[in-house]
Amino acid sequence: MAPPPEPASTAAPPLPPAAPPLPPAVVEAELEEELHLPEAIPEAKRPRVRERVGRARELFAAPFASIRRRAKIDEATFEALEEALLLADVGLPTTERLLTPLRERLAAKALGDDPDALLEALKQDATALFAGEDRALHRESDTTSVWLFVGVNGVGKTTTIGKLATFEKAAGRDVVLAAGDTFRAAAGEQLELWGERSGAEVVRGTEGADPSSVVFDAIQHAAAKGAPLVLADTAGRLHTKVNLMEELRKVRRVADRPPGKVTEVLLVLDATTGQNGLAQARQFTEAVAVTGVVLTKLDGSAKGGVVLAIRSELGLPIKLVGLGEGAPDLVEFDPEEFVGALFD
Ligand SMILES: Nc1nc2c(ncn2[C@@H]2O[C@H](COP(=O)(O)OP(=O)(O)OP(=O)(O)O)[C@@H](O)[C@H]2O)c(=O)[nH]1
Ligand SMILES: [Mg+2]
After folding, report:
1. DSSP three-state, residue 201
2. Which H or E run includes 101?
3. Is the C-alpha dihedral spanning 177, 178, 180, 181 positive or negative?
4. Ligand 1 pocket, residues with Cβ under 6 angstroms
5. Most buried among 52, 169, 181, 244, using CB within 10 Å?
6. What is the DSSP string of 274-340?
7. Which atom of ligand 1 is nearest to the CA of 151?
8. How far is the CA of 279 from the centre of ligand 1 (A)?
9. pLDDT tens readout for residues 135-174
10. pLDDT tens digit string along 36-93?
């Protein structure tokens, strides 16, 4: 996908097209009951984003405090702000996209000269980047819904599936896990461990088996026992190898055959890889129609600004956020909460 055009006028440049909308049938059939992660797990508390994204908060806190101490808003203020955003991994296109309209508001005397007002306006604009995006996790009630998890190795696909399986089972909904990563025996074992913990059944193939046949078997099994959802793991070997993308396309095709229906293709990205994640994302979105992003490892050393870049440059909604390794450490992405956690 080409980067968005350089901003030329006072208006913010248009967002790139969002992920293709799902057919109306899917949207209508979406469960009324929301996921309510992780309240579904007895005695689990929703982790507070603010408490988990410590490193990212620190990156914003010091430069923002020094901007607040400035007497007025001038070019040097903007330079300090630009530097802070770039250091926090927001990326150049998104930084410009955010700052250009603010510069223009300043020039039009619509911003006043209090640096606090500048930061408040930035916060609002950053939150507004996410307006109108479809963050729901879709299911279709008449078929076996399949959520396919894709992404390079080590990003957290298997862990995210394990966390979601825990939520689904705790919420009283049956779910089958498909060990579509047949590349390593350990991958299937890792999924089986999550299956044991969550009580979800895992369908595995032999090592080296065709991943799409494993996913197919899992769908057949889920349909036979009336489980409405299959979470399908896939291998994360090097994305530069074309055959991984071909394999994923095939898995997707097979999973979409009745009684299965792919209602989510979730691209799992590791937040600590920052801007590299964007390059990965482009390759996956080209191969399989990604419906949303799961951004993992926002706890720890992640810089956080990549959240804004994913939305602004890829046009993909972030649907879930990983804040740790345990089952309750997965939350729905809430833009206001997240931007507030970074900026306030
Ligand atoms: N801190 C933290 N660690 C995480 C998070 N999500 C996953 N991890 C850890 O990241 C490591 C890799 O996770 P996996 O789920 O195995 O990643 P994967 O994408 O399945 O990797 P492959 O199977 O090799 O493709 C594990 O040690 C996980 O515990 C998260 O949100 N925060
Ligand atoms: Mg895995």
Report:
1. strand
2. helix 92-107
3. positive
4. 151, 153-159, 181, 187, 236, 268, 296-297, 299-300, 322-325, 329
5. 181
6. TTHHHHHHHHHHHHS---EEEEE--STT--STHHHHIIIII-PPEEEEE-SSSTT-EEE--HHHHHH
7. 19
8. 19
9. 999 999 999 999 999 998 899 999 999 999 999 999 999 9
10. 666 666 656 788 889 899 888 999 999 999 999 999 999 999 999 999 999 999 999 9
Taking the centre of ligand 1 as the mean of its atom positions, its distance from the CA of residue 4, in whole angstroms, is 31
Q: Which two tokens stand for residue 19?
A: 């992920």
Among 296, 319, 323, name the best residue to mutate to test ligand 1's pocket (greatest count of ligand atoms within 8 A of Cβ): 296
The residue to which tokens 């399989």 are assigned: 288
Which residue from 37, 53, 149, 159 has its CB within 8 A of the most atoms of ligand 1, so it is best to mutate? Answer: 159
Two structure tokens written together for 272: 């600590």
Report the C-alpha gap between 8 and 197 in whole angstroms.
54
| CB distance 285 to 267 below 8 Å | yes
Please report, to the nearest 10 degrees, the dihedral formed by the alpha carbons of residues 284, 293, 12, 16 taken in order. 30
Bridge partners (DSSP) of residue 177 are: 202, 231
Half-sphere exposure of 39 (CA within 13 A, CB side): 5
Distance (Å, whole) CA 145 – CA 255: 9
Q: 157 C-alpha vs ligand 1 centroid, how far in Å?
A: 7
- Amino acid 327 reads A
